[in-house]
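> tool_call: predict_assembly(chains=two)
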Amino acid sequence: MNASLSFDLNQYLCERVRLIDNALERYLPGEDVRPQSLHRAMRYSTMSGGKRLRPVLVIAGAEAVGGEAEMVLPTACAVELIHTFSLIHDDLPAIDNDTLRRGRPTCHVQFGEAVAILAGDALFASAFELIARNADAVPAERVVQVLKLVAEASGTRGMVGGQMVDIESEGKEADADIVEYIHRHKTAALIRASVVSGAILAGAEQWQVDALSRYGELTGLAFQIADDLLNVTGDPRKTGKAVGTDAARGKVTYPALFGVEASRQRAHQLVQEAIATLHPFGENAEPLRAIAYLMVEREG
Amino acid sequence: MNASLSFDLNQYLCERVRLIDNALERYLPGEDVRPQSLHRAMRYSTMSGGKRLRPVLVIAGAEAVGGEAEMVLPTACAVELIHTFSLIHDDLPAIDNDTLRRGRPTCHVQFGEAVAILAGDALFASAFELIARNADAVPAERVVQVLKLVAEASGTRGMVGGQMVDIESEGKEADADIVEYIHRHKTAALIRASVVSGAILAGAEQWQVDALSRYGELTGLAFQIADDLLNVTGDPRKTGKAVGTDAARGKVTYPALFGVEASRQRAHQLVQEAIATLHPFGENAEPLRAIAYLMVEREG
């Protein structure tokens, strides 16, 4: 099913993830620096074997327009910190009350609620420090564009807004409009911002920004549908999360509304549409094509 | 005691606060827009009659180097949103568990904990959107400098880090080093960043940035000492907060360590030092001089 047999996605991901993990290791405050408890929690939740999908998309977005990983690395790490911050806060007792994440106790279970709230806040702040730091490598105008994009994708018009509607909708009658709103805001917004940020930092033209924005939106939706499906049919040993929790909570999800088979088809259709937007990028977009397939075919 | 009889601080504050409140009203998302509950909470906590000290300092910092309020208004509002975000999270049951703020129920009492956590997060994100927006009025290089400064002052090397040490120190033996650390990070960092941001956006030279940075640091410390004093000796009808809560919680404060009189003297001494740094700015710094006095002489 993969479009290109010559492109080795595993090797690509392995190299990029190593780059990202090394950079995160350098950027995160040390556990020997005050306040140690906060830094321990920030590192515990960030360095926990995540897939690094969003930072890889920042890099792949840059590469699609002829840029390189090094020039976008601070912003790549920034979006991973924002993702981690959102997981820590979503897991809190007052929100999703999750105790397991990537096979380990969640941040508040490990360090207490106060530390978890503040560790999330500190990661969010660090993300914006990193975006500012990206101005060492690229013109400030591009950094400001990325700042606007990432801040908007994180806040009430993006991730946090989507999470709010998700919570409010629990236990209520599912409705296609609400499911679409939640997916688009809670998940797709930051995925879209990631790939577009990489492209902007690497000096993309407007048509390239527009095409990658569409790619990010479509794959972001597909990714969330795949995530909902894993909550129904996944193997907890591979996902590192409990299964069936969405249904138990009365979460509004795509499979709950349309069924497993129709959801699977919809995810694949979105990926096909996303890949079609990449046509003008030629070989430079090989990583983005392969990642699009991976986003719906993953097991965890 | 006021250095200049000709400068009318009340009128100055009245005009600047009106400007800030109008801008916040425009910038905050509407309560008729989804997710409404989040936007209600964001507005409830932001539009609650705060003194707007930090945004006024952004404007006064710009004016000290010959700039104008209009060119720094988005960033002025941004630091107020960061301040509000920190109050909402600090008030949460897992942290300070405060139920009253500015004479009204705190955000989580009014809207529930989940909404309060997410409203804080959304305000923090909105703050960075506003900083990006400031690039409409000033060069992007200045905006990136401000972004770096404000993000650092908010996170683990600033406000959030100070709050973490504050919580950890509750009920433990007070120690001058710890009190200094808490004041410098929890309060002074954002106050310093506010006045310096205004100056940078208005095109300050390096010696001006350095002098105002020192001013911000000194007045920030004085402000926190005054705040601790109000918690001992204040009138709850004027402060809008309960009195004696720091002592009841075993908080590490300046008066607890050095006594009320020595704390008062220290605050005034810091203000004198802060005002001395303003000498080269002449008349342009009249607002900053008057605000420095106000910060330790306030009743709420």
